[in-house]
Design brief:
globular; single chain; four-stranded antiparallel sheet; eight-stranded antiparallel sheet; 17 strands; 4 helices; alpha+beta; Jelly Rolls
Length: 285
C-alpha cells in the first residue's frame, strides 16, 4: 500500500526551516490513520519493557503512557514507516536527499491526565549530530491547542544545547562524569530555561489538530505539553524520528535514550540495519 497524500510545498519548507516546527494539514489520509491506529492498539495490548505510565500525584485522573522502539514487531508500524508519505515529506522539509528512520515513540495521555511533558529538545537524548534531523508528531484523536505539544518558535536556530530531562521527575539526566562540563560540537550544555515562568519572552507555537494532520519539528526545537484537559477523549500520538544526509553518530555525556546504537561508531552515517533508509525507496530490478 502506498499513497502520495499531501505534497510538501516550498512555503512549507521555508516555514519549517525558519520556525523549527510546522503543522501539515491532511498529511495522511484516513487509510494511514487507520493503519497507525491499529498498530497503536496492538502496542498497548503488547507493551515492551520500555513501556511505562506516570501520573502527577494522587489527584491525577488519567495517566501518561509511553513506549518506544517496537516497530519491528508491529506490522502496521512497518507498513506506515516504509509505505506512507512520511519519509518523502520529512526529506523535503529537511532539504535532504534521503530520510533514515530512527525510531518511533508512542505517547498517550488518558482523559484527565494532569502530567505535563516538561520543556526539552530531543537531539541531546540521541547519539546523533547534524542539522537534518526531525520528528513527525501524528495524533490519532482530535487535539485542542491547549493539549497540543507546543514549541518555542525558532529555538532550533539558537545554537544552544540543553541537558535532557526525565519525563517522570523533570530532573536532568545524570552525567557520566559529574566533574566535567558536558560539551557538544564546542558548545557547553545548559539547563533548559524556565519557559513557563517567562512566557512573554518566547513566541509559542501550537495548533488545533484533527486525525490526518501532523506536526513536523526539528530535534533541537524546544517543546513541551500540558496534560490532557479532556475528560472523555485520549490524546494518542505516534511520534516518529527521522535523520537526513548530514546526520552522524555522536557521543553523549549520559546514557542515551533509546540505548540502541546499531553498532555505529563515532562519525558514522546513521543508515544501518537498525536505522533503515526509507527515502528514496529501494528499487528492485
Amino acid at each position: 500500500m502506498s499513497s502520495p497524500n499531501r505534497t510538501v510545498s516550498t512555503s512549507d519548507i521555508s516555514q519549517y526551516q525558519r520556525d523549527g516546527a510546522i503543522c501539515i494539514r491532511g498529511a495522511f489520509d484516513k487509510e494511514w490513520v487507520d493503519v497507525v491506529t491499529a498498530g497503536v492498539e496492538r502496542n498497548v495490548r503488547e507493551p515492551s519493557a520500555y513501556a511505562g505510565t506516570v501520573k502527577s500525584g494522587d489527584a491525577d485522573a488519567g495517566g501518561f503512557f509511553d513506549d518506544y522502539c517496537n516497530w519491528r514487531r508491529i506490522p502496521e508500524f512497518v507498513n506506515y514507516i516504509n509505505d506512507s508519505p512520511a519519509g518523502r515529506q520529512v526529506a523535503a522539509l529537511m532539504m535532504s536527499q534521503t530520510a533514515v528512520f530512527y525510531h518511533e515513540h508512542l505517547l498517550i495521555k488518558e482523559p484527565g491526565a494532569l502530567k505535563k511533558t516538561p520543556w526539552h529538545h530531543d537531539q541531546p537524548y540521541y547519539p546523533i549530530n547534524g542539522r537534518q534531523v526531525c520528528s513527525i508528531w501524528m495524533p490519532l484523536d482530535s487535539v485542542a491547542a491547549e493539549t497540543c505539544v507546543q514549541f518555542v518558535r525558532g529555538s532550533h536556530n539558537w545554537g544552544r544545547w540543553f541537558v535532557p530531562r526525565k519525563f517522570a521527575t523533570e530532573s536532568n539526566y545524570a552525567l557520566s562524569n559529574p566533574d566535567v562540563i558536558p560539551m557538544n560540537e564546542g558548545i557547553a550544555y545548559e539547563d533548559v530555561p524556565c519557559i513557563d515562568e517567562h512566557p512573554n519572552d518566547y513566541e509559542i507555537l501550537n495548533w488545533n489538530l484533527e486525525p490526518g494532520d501532523c506536526i513536523v519539528f526539528h530535534m533541537l526545537a524546544l517543546h513541551g505539553a500540558a496534560g490532557n484537559a479532556s475528560l472523555s477523549r485520549s490524546r494518542r500520538v505516534l511520534a516518529t524520528r527521522w535523520c537526513g544526509d548530514d546526520a552522524r553518530f555522536a557521543g553523549r555525556d549520559w546514557e542515551i535514550s533509546p540505548t540502541i546504537t546499531g553498532g555505529l561508531e563515532l562519525g558514522d552515517p546513521i543508515a544501518c540495519d537498525a536505522f533503515p533508509l526509507v527515502w528514496p525507496p529501494a528499487t528492485h530490478e
